[in-house]
Design goal:
The strands form 3 sheets. This protein has a 6-stranded mixed sheet, sandwiched between helices. It is globular and about 55 Å long. It is built from 19 helices and 14 strands. Bound molecules: pyridoxal-5'-phosphate. The site of pyridoxal-5'-phosphate has 16 residues, from helix 12.
């Protein structure tokens, strides 16, 4: 197993190299050389296997022996050391709750795995400190900070759009100190992401720092997201009728991981990529063109992405757009439809969903109403992370789970900056 660049396929890297550098030297995303890596026995026996072992078996082939099995088992076990339950909502809709980790969003899975891999690699060989640069629309930064806080040999710099993350998210980004720095950018998420991308291609920054990315472009964050799709199938009762799986999508890393696991044999009826008003990919499914738009702000702000970076990986998975469309759908849900979905879930099913989960529910329900079958939407964050939206739509305040409610006691430390690459570079070099 190796990884190749999706720009120039002759550029290759091992897992270690790909995890430490984030993206290929030509700016391309890395993609695994083998994709069908689990056998029928794995899928037949999954009910009897514990989650730690499932995670280990899924990830082992990608690592190519660069982390010994005993360490990799420990890393895999720590990555999935919280509940990921499948809960029934209605006769044909269930939800996979991915928000029981330390920062209450699914990104904990990828961030925990990646931080432990980089921790392992930096303890071993050359000692130059690794600097993780991460652009976040809200949840990634917190998960990465929680994963990396206190990891020796790794520094983390988080760029987030000022005023466009929720209060709890901002606390989860800015209250760490030590090896974690937060930069509040006067711009949107796409601006933050553009600055990070430019930084990776900048010679002076690369001479000075060993830079890597903790966005889902990094294979060490992207690949472990396959784990919970396997947990979904493990908990799925009607094994003769595989689920329609609907994933609230922004950068499309999450759904792309699910599609990758399906390449390894996970039974799926159909994948639905649900977006909010940022409808670049739904438009591509309909017309074949990707409109060149700016991101618009919505209640589901972790998905306010105009140019999803992982979509090139999805295109690599499918030979043609026709094949992609047979296998999956992509649907845009408006703000009004998101609010209606939150009200329906709460009123009819006593289920408090966050706006991202609600986007997934709305798209899934529409699909099942038209096509029949049963499905699962991923609930990607705990509702308390988006309390302003919940209060606005439902008139209630979600409670923060025990153990997460003490952040407001801590000091918030961040640097405010114009969303401009040269300003950022000067700050890094200074
Ligand atoms: C990041 C995020 C998403 C989008 O995931 P992608 O992998 O970028 O498509 C959806 N919901 C929540 C809550 C998120 O934090």
């Amino acid at each position: 197993m190796f990884f190749y660049s999706l720009k120039d396929k002759s550029i290759k890297a091992s897992f270690r190299e790909a995890a430490i550098t984030g993206q290929a030297p030509d700016g391309g995303l890395y993609y695994p050389s083998e994709t069908n890596i689990l056998d029928g026995e794995f899928w037949r026996n999954i009910k009897q296997v514990d989650n730690e072992e499932i995670a280990f078996q899924i990830i082992k082939p990608y690592i190519g022996g660069e982390i010994p099995d005993v360490d990799l088992r420990r890393i895999a076990a720590e990555t999935v050391a919280f509940d990921i339950p499948l809960k029934k909502i209605s006769h044909n809709i269930s939800t996979l709750e991915l928000f029981h980790g330390p920062t209450l969003a699914f990104k904990d899975v990828g961030a925990r795995f990646m931080s432990r891999c980089l921790g392992y690699f930096s303890q071993n060989k050359d000692s130059k400190e690794v600097t993780v640069l991460v652009a976040t629309s809200g949840d990634t930064g917190g998960a990465v900070a929680a994963g990396f806080h206190g990891v020796a040999g790794v520094r983390v710099v988080i760029l987030y759009p000022k005023g466009k993350v929720s209060a709890l998210q901002e606390l989860q980004l800015t209250t760490w100190g030590d090896n974690i720095s937060a930069v509040a950018m006067e711009g949107n998420f796409d601006d933050c992401q553009a600055i990070v991308k430019k930084a990776f291609l900048d010679n002076e920054l690369n001479e000075r720092f060993k830079l890597t990315s903790a966005n889902s472009i990094n294979v060490a964050r992207w690949l472990p997201q396959q784990f919970y799709y396997a947990f979904l199938w493990k908990q799925w009762e009607d094994k003769d009728n595989p689920p329609v799986i609907c994933v609230p999508s922004g950068n499309f890393g999450n759904i792309c991981a699910g599609m990758l696991l399906a390449k390894s044999g996970m039974p799926v009826q159909k994948f639905i990529a649900a977006t909010n008003a940022n409808d670049t990919i739904p438009t591509f499914y309909q017309t074949g063109d990707m409109p060149d738009k700016k991101a618009v702000a919505t209640m589901s702000n972790a998905m306010d992405v105009a140019l999803p970076s992982n979509f090139v990986r999805i295109m690599e998975m499918f030979m043609t757009r026709d094949e992609l469309i047979r296998y999956s759908e992509s649907v845009s849900i408006t703000e009004a439809e998101t609010a209606d979905a939150m009200k329906e879930l709460y009123g009819d099913f006593q289920y408090l969903a966050d706006p991202h989960g609600a986007v997934g529910f709305a798209a899934l329900k529409r699909y099942l109403d038209n096509n029949g079958g049963k499905g699962v939407f991923l609930e990607t964050a705990h509702p308390c992370k988006f309390d302003a939206a919940i209060t606005h739509v439902l008139g209630i305040t979600p409670t923060i789970p025990a153990g997460h409610d003490d952040l407001s006691q801590k000091a918030s430390i961040y640097t405010t900056m114009q969303a401009d690459f040269d300003t950022f570079k000067a700050w890094m070099m200074g």
